[in-house]
Amino acid sequence: MKKLLTVCLLAFAAAGATGCRSAAEGVKPKLMWLDCSANWVRFSYPDSIRYYVNKCREAGMTALVLDVKGTSSEVVYPSEHAPQVREWKGFARPDFDFVGTFVEAAHDAGLEIYGSFNTFAEGNGVFRRGLIYDGHPEWQAVNYVPGRGLVPQLEIPEKKVLFANPALPAVQDHEIAIFKEVAQKYDFDGLLLDRGRYDNIQSDFSDFSRGKFETYIGKKLDRFPEDIYTWEEDGDGGWKRIDGPYFKQWIEWRASVIYDFFKRTKEELKAVKPGLKFGAYTGAWYPSYFEVGVNWASNTYDPSQ
Q: Is the backbone peptide bond immediately before 67 cis, with ω within 30 degrees of 0?
């Protein structure tokens, strides 16, 4: 199993629904993240799924986190909104209810189980699969690449995970439709969003984002992206960022895009299944986390103190 970590739960669970099924009062939750790409063959049979679920229980896990949507836009169940992955690295999985089997096995073992989603990842650059490649190239983010300027992600050959622009309404609608579909189809205890963020500090500098930012600050920019920041060579073969006059408002606006997306997602999921928990896989590197458009601190917290 590829990932083992503690997840930040942004819960809106109903009262009394916050504890793991197998955890006694006061027992620390332990979550095992099940990466479906790394475990594609291993999890391709119902008896194998039950075997590994029981192994997780024996190891002291209290909850499982199952990848439902990968970086290639594909999901591991029949969906009306996203392509279903049936083959990975040359191996075709037998036809059975993969997600339903995992949910049933986890609950039979007394464990909670969460569905996870590579939210704004819509292209796997290694295998060149995903909606950015096939279906929605207009969703791709535009990165401000040192020494190269503004470059659509399809034109960055070294990209392993291609991100959609989180600010695009069509992208947000697509992701939320998948979340709601999964919440209605399967008895997950909660849903967790991975990659619910911007790609990096270089992203997104599309014309759409420029227009939305100009509306946010109430004025047109004379120089874009230079009014946000510029890249300068550092003399040691690298690059350094030189912040422009609107850099702080830019990172504030990007964080507001992600905040509003999570707020909307929470409200729409709660309407579908009120007791469902909702969480996010987030980085612990707070001093630099603003670079991906995320700020989970309280709005009363002053980091300068």
A: no
**Cβ atoms < 10 Å from Cβ of 30:** 16
3-state secondary structure of 42: coil
Percent of the chain residues topping a pLDDT of 70: 92
Q: Which residue is it, tokens 């590994």?
A: 52
- Tell which residue, 41, 29, 109, 100, has the closest CA to residue 66: 100
**Residue 95 has what DSSP assignment?**
S
CA atoms within 13 A on the CB side of 264: 15
Query: How far apart are the two ends of the chain, measured CA to CA in Å?
Result: 40
What's the mean pLDDT when you consider all of the chain? 91
How many angstroms from the chain centroid is the CA of residue 282? 9
Distance CA 133, CA 217 (A): 33
Helices of type H across 2-117: 46-58, 98-108
Residue 106 pLDDT more than 80? Answer: yes
279 alpha-carbon distance from chain centroid:
11
pLDDT digits (tens, 9 = 90+) for 233-288: 999 999 999 999 999 999 999 999 999 999 999 999 999 999 999 999 987 788 88
Residues 23, 7: Cα–Cα separation, whole Å: 16
pLDDT value at 12 more than 50: no
Torsion sign, CA atoms 268, 270, 271, 272: positive
Contacts of 215 (CB under 8 A, 6+ apart): none
Q: Taking a C-beta distance cutoff of 8 angstroms, is the pair 114, 190 a contact?
A: yes
Higher model confidence: residue 286 or residue 88? Answer: 88
Per the CB < 8 A criterion, the answer to whether 278 and 11 are in contact is yes
Concatenate the DSSP letters of all residues of 157-187 into one string. Answer: TT-SEEEB-TT-HHHHHHHHHHHHHHHHHS-
